[in-house]
Amino acid sequence: MRTKTNWVVMLLITLGTILILFPLYMTITIALKTPEDMLSSVFGLPRELHFENFTNAIQMTNFFNALGNSAMVTTATVVLTLLTNSLVAYAIARNMNRKFFKGLYFYFISAMFIPFPIIMLPLVKLTAGLHMTNLVGLTILHTVYALAFNVFVYVGYIKSIPVALEEAARVDGTSTWGTFWRIIFPMMAPMNATVGILICLSTYNDFLLPLIIISDTSSYTLPLVQYIFQGQFNTDFNLAFASYLMAMLPMIIIYLFAQKWIINGITQGAVK
Amino acid sequence: MNKRLTPYYLMTIPAVVLFFVFLTLPALQGVYYSFTNWNGFGDNFDFIGFKNYVNLFKDGNVGHAYWFTFKFAVVVTILINIFSLLIAMGLNAKIKARNFFRGIYFLPNILSVLIVGYIFNYMFSNVFTIWGKNLGIDWLSTNILGSEQHAWIGVVIVAVWQGIAYNTILYLAGLQTISRTLYEASSLDGANRWQEFWKITFPLIAPFFTINMVLAMKNSLMVFDQIIALTNGGPGRATQSISHLIYTGGFEGGEFAYQSANSVIYFILIATISVVQIRFLQRREGDV
């Protein structure tokens, strides 16, 4: 059935995208201007492209170090989360009839109601005592805190996978571990994608956890760097915006290529 | 122990231990410290019973942080849900390049909240003010974030700009589950657009409405990054949220125990609100 395009709605939706894109347009143009350009026109396109803002920002914030840290923590968290959270959820989902596992399920998902500031103050003491004020500590904490939500969505998903396959594997002599890695984990691919996308975004963009955990300058992640250098940026907006843009760019690039995938994944996670 | 179950226990034990150590333990420690007068770095402290809790209720700064946070959260939740439902309905209408527009509207969701805050901070001080001056609009020509009375509106604008993205996608997913034939039937019955929305669309996306309300409310009650990037709680303490107060008081103000008590209250409130919201909204879902 083909019907006419609704042009009124089309117009409104187009106008709306201007509100979304305008701050990004400003970010890109300001990052390429000099303070003198800004005096003549704040909104216009840059007359010349001043890429030195980027090179200066890279030097000043030690950008590649922060990018490396963010990339490392994000990758490690995604891998560790996918491997461990799914495993825990599997054990729980297949034993929900047992008190221990059912109790665990509710123990884990009840943490979804615990706002982070509650544990923030004692956590700093704890991680300092355990020498976890580094990227490894950050990765472990991100993985642990993701568990509440992930157990919830994984268990829901595993329940929909028939047990018959696992029983057949067991008859063939495959161990429980083997069954999980060779049969269940691959079958969970759609849910793994959802969980992976969500944890990737939240880890990469997280500010509060690195803020309170990381003390060593060489371990700063990208959002933390923007915060730390804010005082020095204040005098030079062009430098600041170049730095912001570079910090956001990796996710924007990933989004450009995997947009459909990311949106579908996130919808899946919430609808479950 | 049943031997067949052993692997299952092994699968969960490490997670249970880590979860306990890094979540349950700090939460319990927080409760423990809330009954002491520890400043966060000294060696000795005493138990002072419920004194911190009593003082919390007398503390004007705490009261103001709660007032600001709740006002902010309610306004943001309502605005996000209105706008994202409207946008989702627009995206679900007969338009061209739907996926392109969907991609644009979702974009803010993937950006760092802190950095978006910094970008808007600049726009409030250097862009909107220029518009205000050029157009001769008084209220626009001064930086809204510098006004004790109106700074909170600036924070609301940024939170809504970014928060709409996620909720729009969920509403759109909800709208796409509704069969077109229902609308065709209702238009044959002579229903107008308004009736159509309240009698068909809205009831059928009720579960999505529940998730969106709960998520938006919970996220905005925890507002922190935006505050850091936009106002740092100011001017004065005008936009200090609860989590910002816990952070600054607990880490910088030597109020470790006092802010622990504050976070216990905060936790109880958030948990209660989430549970009540879910109960209430789910009952509504059941009614239709």
UniProtKB/TrEMBL annotation, chain A:
GO terms for cellular component: plasma membrane. Keywords: Cell membrane, Membrane, Transmembrane, Transmembrane helix, Transport. Residues 67-258 form the ABC transmembrane type-1 domain. Signal peptide: none annotated. Belongs to the binding-protein-dependent transport system permease family. GO terms for biological process: transmembrane transport. It comes from the Bacteria. It is found in: Cell membrane. InterPro entries: BP-dep_ABC_trans_perm, MetI-like, MetI-like_sf. This is ABC transporter permease. PANTHER family: DIACETYLCHITOBIOSE UPTAKE SYSTEM PERMEASE PROTEIN NGCG, MALTOSE TRANSPORT SYSTEM PERMEASE-RELATED. PROSITE patterns: ABC_TM1.
UniProtKB/TrEMBL annotation, chain B:
PROSITE patterns: ABC_TM1 (PS50928). The chain crosses the membrane at residues 7-28, 65-91, 103-131, 151-175, 196-215, 264-281. The keyword Lyase does not apply. Belongs to the binding-protein-dependent transport system permease family. InterPro entries: ABC_transporter_permease, MetI-like, MetI-like_sf. The lineage of its organism: Bacteria, Bacillati, Bacillota, Bacilli, Bacillales. PANTHER family: ABC TRANSPORTER PERMEASE PROTEIN (PTHR30193), INNER MEMBRANE ABC TRANSPORTER PERMEASE PROTEIN YCJO (PTHR30193:SF37). It is found in: Cell membrane. This is Sugar ABC transporter permease. The keyword Transit peptide does not apply. It is a multi-pass membrane protein. Its main location: membrane. It comes from the Bacteria.
